[in-house]
Amino acid sequence: MTLHIKYMVSVRCKMIVKSVLKKLRLHYVHVGLGDIEMAADISMEQREELKSALQKCGLELLEDKKSILVEKIKNEIVEMVHYSETPLTINFSAVLAQKLHYHYTYLSNVFSEVAGTTIERFVIAHKIERVKQLISYDELNMTEIAILMNYSSVAHLCNQFKKATGLTPSDFKKLHYKCLYGLDEINNYPELSQN
């Protein structure tokens, strides 16, 4: 039995879910980003206990098929943008269609309907947030960051960064307080708003 969870986008979230499952004495096979593979089916009573415990941690047990699909899309994007060790030389639409076994047009339409934004805007928001992290780490120069995040040029990266944040990358780097969002907060990222 697979359960799907909203807002589960980090290793810390996975640790929280494992802790909740342990407390409730629910046995699982695997906890991934956005899902739990249970060792066996759980009762409605156990499901309600799990739902309540997850809500207390800021997570949500999903039951609607479209919402589950949108969370899968989000989790795939987070995985590709934030946890990949290689440059993002991928075609997001092709990868999403292949991994989720749906035509990209369908995925795009469901995502826009449920999330209120496009997949493209969601990807851009996460890429910008990753760029902010990389700038903050101060280990790569802008050319290396542009290559890693699959921007055609440093100028393209800088333009998109300024549009999303209101700052140039160099202005952002000068800030003492780095305005980084948690991965679960990027849904409210300014770049996601429809203009």
Please characterize this protein's 3D structure.
- This protein has a four-stranded antiparallel sheet, with helices on both faces.
- The protein has two domains: 2-63, Alpha-Beta Plaits (2-Layer Sandwich), CATH 3.30.70; 67-192, Arc Repressor Mutant, subunit A (Orthogonal Bundle), CATH 1.10.10.60.
- A hairpin with a 2-residue loop joins strand 2 and strand 3.
- The mean pLDDT is 87.
- The relative contact order is 0.11.
- The chain is built from nine helices and four strands; from the N terminus they run E-H-E-E-H-E-H-H-H-H-H-H-H.
- With 195 residues, it is an alpha+beta fold.
- The termini are far apart.
Task: Describe the structure using short key phrases.
single chain, 2 domains, alpha+beta, Alpha-Beta Plaits, 195 residues, elongated, 4 strands
Quick overview:
This protein is elongated. It is 56% helix and 9% strand. It is α+β, with helices and mostly antiparallel strands and 195 residues long.
List the helices and strands and how they pair.
Elements: E1 2-6, H1 11-23, E2 28-32, E3 35-38, H2 44-56, E4 60-62, H3 65-82, H4 92-100, H5 104-115, H6 119-137, H7 142-148, H8 154-165, H9 169-174
Antiparallel strand pairs: 1-3, 1-4, 2-3
- Integer tally of domains: 2
**Biggest β-sheet, characterized?**
4 strands, antiparallel
Strand fraction equals 5-15%
Q: Helical residue percent? A: 55-70%
- CA distance, first residue to last residue: 40 Å
CATH homology-level superfamily of the largest domain: Homeodomain-like
